[in-house]
């Protein structure tokens, strides 16, 4: 039945009772973008832009960047593409914007923090995104990585709007911004939860340390308690709040996310079909019961077992 549903279901993601959930692709290169754009997705919910910057001795010019963005935007036609501005630094150092080594790279000068140290970096990127947008029909959204405070998203939003980019978001991947999502969404038009880094920072467990896998398990009840808190802020504000971390691509955790109030899921293209089929098999109320069961659990094993119990056996 799952195969049949997967083969039959196409178009926008919907729960069994019709709640729309945007299904989007994560992309990180022009090649990825061309493949994803040919897929059955409503757009890209995470366009990682690091590929333009890493391994270079000088920053890419506005013209170079514009050309790359144009290729990607053109492929998506009039669909939505959420560009995440440069998330370099620390373990992904830039030869042309170095602040010396960090002792704790994950807690160091990365993401928006690096952009703030080298302001020209962000302005150039935003200008290129706006120029490429003007050459295509794409619905472009921009979002900042590693937002930790309201002041930071205000700084980013001002820069983006000054560049003519009017749909501005914050990634929620630092616990402080999840806690303060309500205030972040007074400034931002949308938010997107990066569960990879949110797990790392919530559990103080380096995402590159394999031996801490149990803490980084996406079934950790504490992660979903915090996701629900942030998603509630989105629901109250009437603003989109998505997930673009790995957890959103799991067919069962996607249900937990939707039950929490998440309005879009962005994942690698290969995962979209199963997630779409899983949504089609469950009602919003079933998803909500799953979210409650996860939050009430004490361990990842317990939360997964509780959701399996509530889920259609064919998932
Ligand atoms: C995340 O942290 O969940 C995320 C989507 O961003 P990245 O994996 O690029 O850090
Ligand atoms: Mg991240």
Automatic annotation (TrEMBL):
GO terms for cellular component: cytoplasm. Phosphoenolpyruvate binds at residues 48, 84, 196-197, 207. Residues 1-18 are annotated as: Disordered. Residues 4-280 form the PEP-utilising enzyme C-terminal domain. Keywords: Cytoplasm, Kinase, Magnesium, Metal-binding, Phosphotransferase system, Sugar transport, Transferase, Transport. General (non sugar-specific) component of the phosphoenolpyruvate-dependent sugar phosphotransferase system (sugar PTS). This major carbohydrate active-transport system catalyzes the phosphorylation of incoming sugar substrates concomitantly with their translocation across the cell membrane. Enzyme I transfers the phosphoryl group from phosphoenolpyruvate (PEP) to the phosphoryl carrier protein (HPr). Belongs to the PEP-utilizing enzyme family. This is Phosphoenolpyruvate-protein phosphotransferase. It comes from Tessaracoccus oleiagri. The lineage of its organism: Bacteria, Bacillati, Actinomycetota, Actinomycetes, Propionibacteriales. The chain holds residues 239 to 553 of 558 of the full protein.
């Amino acid at each position: 039945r799952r195969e049949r549903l997967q083969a039959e279901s196409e178009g926008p993601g919907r729960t069994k009772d019709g709640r729309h959930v945007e299904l989007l692709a994560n992309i990180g290169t022009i090649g990825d973008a061309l493949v994803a754009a040919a897929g059955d997705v409503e757009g890209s919910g995470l366009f990682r832009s690091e590929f333009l910057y890493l391994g270079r001795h000088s920053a890419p010019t506005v013209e170079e960047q514009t050309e790359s963005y144009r290729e990607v935007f053109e492929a998506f036609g009039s669909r939505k593409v959420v560009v995440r501005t440069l998330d370099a630094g620390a373990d992904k150092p830039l030869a042309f914007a170095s602040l010396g080594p960090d002792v704790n790279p994950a807690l160091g000068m990365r993401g928006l923090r690096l952009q703030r140290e080298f302001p020209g970096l962000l302005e150039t990127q935003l200008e290129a995104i706006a120029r490429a947008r003007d050459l295509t029909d794409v619905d472009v959204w921009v979002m900042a990585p590693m937002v930790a405070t309201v002041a930071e998203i205000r700084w980013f939003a001002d820069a983006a709007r000054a560049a003519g980019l009017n749909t501005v978001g914050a990634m929620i991947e630092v616990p402080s911004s999840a806690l303060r999502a309500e205030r972040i969404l007074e400034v931002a038009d949308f938010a997107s939860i990066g569960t990879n880094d949110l797990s790392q920072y919530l559990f103080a467990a380096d995402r590159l340390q394999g031996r801490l896998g149990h803490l980084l398990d996406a079934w950790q009840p504490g992660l979903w308690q915090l996701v629900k808190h942030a998603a509630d802020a989105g629901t109250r504000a009437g603003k989109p709040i998505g997930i673009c971390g790995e957890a959103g691509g799991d067919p069962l955790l996607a249900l937990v996310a939707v039950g929490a109030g998440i309005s879009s899921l962005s994942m690698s293209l290969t995962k979209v079909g199963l997630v779409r089929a899983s949504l089609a098999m469950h009602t919003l109320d079933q998803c909500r019961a799953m979210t409650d069961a996860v939050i009430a659990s004490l361990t990842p094993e317990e939360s997964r077992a509780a959701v399996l119990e509530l889920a259609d056996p064919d998932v």
